[in-house]
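Let's practice the habit of predicting before peeking. Look at the sequence and jot down your guess about where helices and strands might fall. Then scroll down.
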Amino acid sequence: MLFSELGLSAELLRAIKEQGYQEATPIQQQAIPFVLEGRDILAGAQTGTGKTAGFTLPLLQRLQELDPNGRQHRVRALILVPTRELAAQVGESVRNYGRYLPFRSTVIFGGVSINPQISKLRKGVDIIVATPGRLLDHMQRGTIRLDGVDTLVLDEADRMLDMGFIHDIRKILKALPSRRQNLLFSATVSREITRLSADLLHSPKEIQVARRNTTAERVTQIVHPVDRDRKRELLSQLIAQGNWRQVLVFTRTKHLANRLSKQLIGDGLPATAIHGNKSQGARTRALAEFKNGDVRVLVATDIAARGLDIDQLPHVVNYELPNVPEDYIHRIGRTARAGQDGHAVSLVCVDEKKLLADIERLLKCDIDKVIVPGYEPDTNIRPEPIMNGRNRRPSRKARGGNGQGRRSRRAA
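Done guessing? Here is the structure:
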């Protein structure tokens, strides 16, 4: 279906055309008409399917209908996201699609000075894209008013719950008008998401463009069994021999992300790390260098990588499997975006067999296992325990149940 058949305004269609799009994706085809009708939505869609435009475009049109001349400049739409990178990505989409409309938008997140954000808010904005922690900071300072919000969007809601944002979200909800449109978008739909939707949404339209908790069809998945102390050697060989020019590599910890990127540089592979302890400026530079090809390998943790939008990213590597099976779907969803083909490789040692079994149980399929010649696992090696390692969701402390966790969330 063409965007021109979805009832969007001429200004939006012009902006869509300039972005190089003509045909709407399945999630966009289903979501846009219901958002335009003012319906609440619970939408489950894999990453890379275009769900950001699925709520951004009709949100902008509804603003256009309510305030054609854009004279009010008060917060009418609030988009909550879990990470800085996703906030920046969604904010860019709002600007690109709304370039011919008179509305102001801004992005607010932690890790940067709050003063420029306060300055923009004082001038008046119509749309805010925010991480929960920094939004609460503004609410406590009295620098933002949310009593005029007509539309609330929770994007990547599953990840926000995984990161322990539920209490922050509930505080924010109390500051919003009771009569509003609510749009909940999530790549995976868990019991927690179902419970949240029951509290938040009113007679919602449920949209599911693929069966729950599945990976993109165009991703080729493979597991290479390997000893834990030979993973880095195998990774370097795969990248060099395969002439992989752009590779996103996932680790579980910030420390390993730093160490692995330095080791890859020592192997002659330009690499950098991105994670929550990096300043926003460093994270932005690392991503820019990766996108323009100056850096060949980007080593990332799950929190930092959520929301990375890289056109035609061909390769994703799980250097370590995630503790939470759903995070596997999010990780490999960084590739095979917008109809492109993708390649997802997992380097799995004996310690991670249970994690792999949990992932395959979630996907309801077995992932092909291929032993690379020369890297046959030693059957005498005993498994070691994994941090947070009952292979379930991280502990309350790890999710941010204490003061330290709250500081880490506020920095997102």
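How did you do? The first strand starts at residue 41 and ends at 44.
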